[in-house]
Amino acid sequence: MGRAPETRKQALVKLAWVGIWLVYLGAPVSDLADGGHGVLVTTAAALGLAAFVLAYLALVFLRTNAREKPEQWVYAVLVAQTGLSALLSATLGKSWLVLFVYVAVACGAALPFRESRWAVPAVTAVLAAIGASVDSGGDLYPALIIPALLGGFAMVGVKQLVRTMRELREARETVAQLAATEERLRLARDLHDLLGHSLSLITLKSELAGRMLPDRPDDAAEQVADIEKVSRQALVDVREAVSGYRRPTLTAELAGARTALASAGVTARVHADGPPPGLAPEAEGALAWALREAVTNVVRHSGAATCVVALETAGGLATLTVSDDGRGPGDDLEPGNGLTGLTERLILAGGTLRTDRSGDGGFVLRASVPLDPAPVGAEGGRAGGGRE
């Protein structure tokens, strides 16, 4: 329901459900079969009835699922059906009054509600007027007035139900697309942050090992061993990110930050030991990603000699600050993919991200996330750094 037939089988099934109600045309068919009319009248009436049935099937079959405003031919067909019903009923007798019921149903199926709510009663009124003249006994047309009204408005309800089903199906498809898009964004953010950090560290250690090789092969071998560890861990992280289980911790990222900064020859001043009390796992993960991104950018872009990492809690917020004394940001301070993805992570955790120039002319990043309402009994340092 709510979807146009897409295959021949679906079209035949729908046509069968529409056509089954034609059984109530038995009265006019019996009137023709009784032979009470001349050959010319019978032939003309049979052709008119066939044209009426084809028009009815076309309207109900084609217009029930339609969402656009009806074309002009729809109104023309409905007017023609009404005129044909009036002509056949007035000339052939009360057995043909049942055609008006089908006209009312066609109005409900083919017209929008603001028009069908008037068209159905109008067709019923025409039925009552002609029935009063051709059925002097009054035993037939009252029995058709209620079916005409109920059938017409029932089809209006069916069309409304079809529209609702269509909107629900479209909404479900939209939700599925949004979920897929969000998963792609999550995966892109994770892979960018994971591989950016790991590959930067591998590059640094490879360059360091290359400089050590001629004179200090033992130290070079140690760097190569570190490269192997980093690459293996990167592989594990990527697998976890793809599986959706990756959630870094502040403790691990603080240790990784010290290692990465030391390998790059940057003096690290870390004023934090781990997550403060009251920090939810989602918020801790967002700060851990912020620390990873900030340190990666210090190593790759800043040319800094010193990097300060601090974590403090105040005003119900935990704030991570990473700042360096290297090359500061450009005048436009345009964020790259890393900072854009980091902003999205923090927003999902209810936090914020701010970037600026540090007091030493370098770059500072501040990432803040809310703490749980429970009292927090720890003090941290300050936050900053990152520019990608």
From TrEMBL:
GO terms for molecular function: kinase activity. SUPFAM superfamilies: ATPase domain of HSP90 chaperone/DNA topoisomerase II/histidine kinase. Residues 378-388 have a biased composition (Gly residues). Keywords: Coiled coil, Kinase, Membrane, Transferase, Transmembrane, Transmembrane helix, Two-component regulatory system. The keyword Repeat does not apply. The chain crosses the membrane at residues 12-33, 39-61, 73-90, 96-113, 118-134, 140-162. Residues 183-249 form the Signal transduction histidine kinase subgroup 3 dimerisation and phosphoacceptor domain. Residues 368-388 are annotated as: Disordered. Residues 161-188 form a coiled coil. InterPro entries: HATPase_C_sf (IPR036890), Sensor_HK_TwoCompSys (IPR050482), Sig_transdc_His_kin_sub3_dim/P (IPR011712). This is Sensor histidine kinase.
